[in-house]
């Protein structure tokens, strides 16, 4: 993925990040923290932290690196543009995304609650870049979990690209409102952090119950807007 000047700083760190061989090995062998390969909005650290209920101050981007998945293609739901990956018989088919290390069981379950209503968790092999003690880079294939579409492709549109374009999402209200909610949580202390956590749990429940990606993300956006309005009322008081 190409790093662009207008990308958020934390996402820029992800795109330029390369872990050492030792760091990769430690991440793979850490008990109960199997890595996850993501290719949609969860590639963005701010969005990831929101959905896994992580403190906004945590530098999760340090555990995130670019990765390439072979044997899958990117599709999107025609009505919403939500990306999904599907198995492909083309040996040259690839999907570029992000590999996340160090997620605990609660955090991985949060991703499961978000994605499992639409897709199945599958074991995949992805290729990453690592550096050795001399700072020389090499390629390495590692095992990870990823969510893939296993059903009929009716309603799916091939994207014709290996990477989900994040630009439109970054410019939209969903990302803006999540950034705003996390900023308010960081500045407001435990009370607002708990409020943000309630929004996370609500949006995850709505996502797992909804069969439509567009309804899922619209519901999440409405929840975020409602929470921000409540926070503003409290500030005025």
Automatic annotation (TrEMBL):
InterPro entries: AIG2-like_dom, GGCT-like. Residues 201-214 have a biased composition (Low complexity). Pfam families: GGACT. Residues 186-220 are annotated as: Disordered. Residues 37-164 form the Gamma-glutamylcyclotransferase AIG2-like domain. This is Gamma-glutamylcyclotransferase AIG2-like domain-containing protein. It comes from Aspergillus wentii DTO 134E9.
């Amino acid at each position: 993925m190409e790093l662009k000047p207008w990308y958020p700083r934390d996402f820029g760190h992800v795109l330029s990040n390369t872990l050492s061989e030792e760091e990769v090995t430690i991440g793979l062998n850490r008990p109960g923290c199997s890595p996850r390969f993501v290719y949609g909005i969860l590639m963005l650290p701010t969005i990831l932290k929101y959905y896994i209920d992580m403190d906004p101050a945590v530098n999760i981007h340090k555990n995130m690196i670019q990765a390439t998945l072979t044997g899958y293609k990117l599709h999107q739901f025609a009505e919403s543009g939500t990306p999904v990956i599907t198995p492909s018989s083309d040996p040259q088919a690839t999907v570029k995304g992000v590999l996340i290390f160090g997620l605990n069981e609660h955090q991985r379950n949060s991703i499961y609650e978000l994605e499992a209503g639409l897709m199945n968790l599958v074991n995949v092999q992805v290729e990453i870049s690592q550096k050795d003690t001399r700072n020389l880079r090499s390629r390495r294939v590692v095992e990870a979990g990823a969510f893939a579409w296993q059903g009929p492709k009716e309603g799916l549109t091939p994207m014709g690209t290996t990477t989900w374009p994040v630009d439109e999402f970054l410019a939209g209200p969903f990302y803006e409102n999540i950034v705003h909610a996390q900023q308010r949580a960081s500045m407001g202390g435990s009370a607002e952090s708990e409020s943000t956590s309630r929004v996370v749990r609500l949006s995850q429940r709505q996502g797992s119950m909804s069969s439509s990606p567009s309804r899922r993300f619209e519901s999440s956006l409405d929840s975020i807007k409602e929470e921000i309005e409540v926070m503003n009322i409290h500030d005025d008081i």
